Amino acid sequence: MKDLDLITIGRVSVDLYGQQIGGRLEDMASFAKAVGGCPANIAIGAARLGLKSALLSRVGDEAMGRFVREQLSREGVNVEGLKTDPDRLTALVLLGVRDEQQFPLIFYRSDCADGALDEGDIDKGLIGRAGAVLVTGTHFAKPSSDAAQRKAMRLARENGARVVLDIDYRPNLWGLAGHGAGEARFVASKDVTAHLQTILPDCDLIVGTEEELHIAGGSEDTMEALRTIRALAPRALIVAKRGAEGCVAFPNAIPSSLGEGIKGPGFPVEVYNVLGAGDAFMAGFLSGWLRDEPLESCCTYANACGAIAVSRLLCSPEYASAAELKHFLEHGSQHHALRHDPVLNHIHHATTRRPVPAKLAILSIDHGPHDLEPIARRFGGDPARIPHFKTLAVRAAAAAASDRAGRAGEGVGMFLDGGLGREALFRAEDHDFWVARQVPHGERIRLTEWPARQVAKLIANGRSDARTPLSRHLPEVKQVFAAAQALGREVLIEALPPEGETTASILETLYGEGLKPDYWLIELQHDSASWAAVDAVIGAHDPYCRGLIVIARNAQSGPELAKAGKQARVAGFVGGRSVFGAAFQLWLSGGIDDEAAVELMKRQFEALADAFAG
Predict the structure, then answer these.
(1) N or C end of the chain: which has fewer CB within 10 A?
(2) Above 90 in pLDDT, residue 406?
């Protein structure tokens, strides 16, 4: 059974991108991490566009290898063929953006895991499940990986699958340039040409830049190179990537000029970073070609995906989703620099987020000193013990998660803070929790220091008893929201309406300020009309919103919580003092110990979760 559209084979790395634009790699001060490597990028790009893709390669038995595996899985890429090499490290690449022509990079690939790919890694059963197998030029540079890819090609042909070659020419990975020449795109070599030409006859699709076609065809005259490739691969579709000019496809005889091939429209945009744009292009092309769409459509998808990628910094994290590509093709963009298009950026963020459970049960204990220290003193407890109690709340949430494991679509989360809850935040990272972290008003927050999966929790309440009126802290909320967006962070905004207004009205106000968080934290609505009004506001402004988290203020909110759980846009509930209040008081006064406090909080939390689940 062919349950995979595509298997890509070869390089996979962790890319570390310098975040300072316009400088030398020597001067980079910070780096952003992403999955990289041509085949891995293509597998992710294809998955985002709806293809069922898999990666066949190797990673090391260490944190970077686990990051690659986990991220590929999050993206929907099948990792059955991704082996863990116990003896080698995952490949690394350091990259930067100097200007529109210079993109310095250094490959750290000495005896790396993916470079050790061999024939034993090629599983006949896995290859037999694919409609197409993509091999990459760089992985023909070493004998073992060369043999592995040739075996995959042979098995693909035996099983009626199509073979795709991305020429992917990196001269220094063929030993033709030094470590410092990672960005070099072309070095003539008769040996490399002869090697690649033994591969061409067995390919159904051959894709490359003009420089890559030159090395495959053995001539720096593009048309002559194309004719040589056609003679060696008479049945292959040949696609020439031409950067800002788009691409040209040649299904049959090579004409007298490049302009006579089959084309799709180009998309002139600001070039921010060309690295990885060709892989986005390939994913776009394959999303049409593997579905047997017209070549003009395949070229259009490819050109658009390449344009979107080239306008952003990173490789795979920046690739278009199907919804993003559809929007771009239908509406275009008013921004030459696509990374400044707020609509496109929002669709990109919303459609490439980490998967989360459909329904969340959340325990909140992000309360600050002004909330908890008076309680501690009232019950004769030492306020210095509060941080320890917050770690007990993490244990209670973990115990509840263990009890509820296996319930389809359910997950456990926590609201935590970086003050009294600093140690609790560390302990929460030991569990597979959804975590929202409080961003206190008036404090300088370095979001780059937060773990990637933590959601930024902002407060934009309009209550008359709020410590800071909405009008005063809204500029700060917008500033932090923009910073979180720039870093790809998810955001939850607490929005409680002013006296006399409704939840729907405050959401309307905040949407009008340009705030489109991933989640809204709201009060329980008491009638169907209120729920309908909230639903209508979100539907009008942001259909990509993950949903509403509702506040369960007391143990008696069970019936209303059950009604909320049935609302389509409600993604979860949160219980705070209704969960930990009684345990906190008894624990402070010495009435119960740590274990009893954990058990009491777990029972309270599960009672609310059961009510919410109906």
Answers:
(1) N
(2) no
